[in-house]
Every structure is written in C-alpha cells, then in structure tokens.
Amino acid sequence: MKLFTSLEFNSLEDLFIEQIEDLYDAEKRLTQALPKMAEASHSPDLRNAFQTHLRETEGHVVRLERIFQKLGRSPERETCEAMKGLIAEGEAMIGAKGDPNVKDAALIAAAQRVEHYEIAAYGTARTFARRLGREAIADELQETLDEEGNADKILTEIAEGVVNIKAHHA
Ligand SMILES: [Fe+2]
Ligand SMILES: [Fe+2]
Question: What pTM value is reported for the model?
C-alpha cells in the first residue's frame, strides 16, 4: 500500500489513478465492514439492504480491477484514511449498547456517511475520466455511482419508513 507522502501529480492522469487507487482501498475495506453491519442490524429490511449492498460492493471492486486493466496497470491500494475513519465510526455503532431500533438508526447514520463519501469520490473520478477521454471507464464509474446513489436512497426509505419511527418510540 502506498503512503500519502509518496504522492506526486504531474498530470490529470496521475491524479485520476491516485483517486482510483484510493477508491480501490475504500471498497476493499467496505467488503469487510458490510457483513458486520448486516449482522448487527435488528430490522430485517436493514439487514437485507446491507447484504444487497455488500454484493454490489463486491462488484465495485471487480469494476475497479477492470478499470486498472483498461489503464494497463495492476490494481494497487492507496490507504483511504477517510474510509478507515468512517468504518471505525460504523464499528462504534455496532458495539453500542441500548435500544435495538435506535441502534439501527445509528447504523443507518454511519452507512449514509459512507455512501455520501463514495458518491463524492465516484463523481470526481467519473468526471476526470470523461475529461481524459476515457469514456468506457467513465461509464463504468457512472454505473457504480448510480448504485451508491440507489443504496443511499434505500437507506433513507428504511430510516424514514420504519427505523426512525420505531427509534422515536424507544
Ligand atoms: Fe461502493
Ligand atoms: Fe456503497
């Protein structure tokens, strides 16, 4: 894994590759974290949403590997400090004591921070890819971006439709 200190940007392509390597690390970490989020869920809808997004996230890893291949590079991870922190917050929610419905709301709060981070990162990466004339790569990044947006929307629906209401009555 590369360190922050080794960064050097002489072109937009350098920066684009760094962004992809950061995302690759972030997605790999998420494939380890999402099963724990699913297991900690009290609501079956929430557990199902985490399990579905785990499968999508495994697809995001594969898609990034395909992008590395298209760039003629081997997949490399650059430690995503932000995702490490967001996952640590998620683990704090998993370990929290108290009412199971409030805990579900806490899991959603942590998970939506993750999704919004991914939405920001994929939006930037997609825009760089288009600028670099890498349309096929941009399309792949857009597909992942759409799935991140959809995951976020589903979490909102579960929060507003079920979990927050039950948490409020705790
Ligand atoms: Fe993802
Ligand atoms: Fe995601």
Answer: 0.95
